[in-house]
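I hope you will forgive my troubling you with a question about protein structure. The matter concerns a single protein, recorded as an amino acid sequence and a row of backbone structure tokens. Please examine both parts with care and let me know of anything in them that strikes you as inconsistent. Thank you for your consideration; the sequence and its tokens are set out here:
***
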Amino acid sequence: MKTIIDCQNLTKIYKNGDEETPALKNVSFNINEGEFVAIMGPSGSGKSTLMHLLGALDTPTSGKYILDGKDISSLSDSELADIRKEKIGFVFQSFNLLPRATVLRNVSLPLIYAEVPKENREKMARTALLHAGMEESRFYHLSNQISGGQMQRVAIARALVNNPAIILADEPTGNLDTKTGQIVLDAFKSLNKQGRTIIIITHEMEVALHARRVIHIRDGEKIKDEVLHP
């Protein structure tokens, strides 16, 4: 099985003048292609810092991060931006949709930035929306005319549309009620069954239990790595 993420002794230290605050301490793990992994920890555990490193939003102070065979530990900001565009689909707690744009338009936006020809964009956006479990009857609704759960599925579709190597979701059910959150987690399970690599960052055990594997982070360290559903 192909290793998509290889983290080797990741350490992140934030500096404020002479003061140093270690947010991550020698964290190591691998994630294989097609896995569904939850990274779980309480507030202040270092999981958000780890998410920033995994998402190529930041680089480690020391250690290596190899993403899809490429060491991205010390790339420049512009090189990291290219990695994010090509390799990672993000899903955030706050949806980050344009309220006065249609569902289809919201999902098409990354394709515009990627300079995908116009004739291909709608087809790709439609495919991503259907894979995310979105009803076709909603495609031309404005994003402020749909429910929270539907908004999150649109956000998932937008993350999928460039066919990234991994989907990285940060507290994706945080703004949803329990029933709606379950629908969104089921969408991630469905995508994982299609072969997608899914990583969810969460502080909630009920959310983490939907993954096949849970990496526990506390005080900047990996304290446990358990397989729930082989």
Q: What stands out?
A: The mean pLDDT is 92.
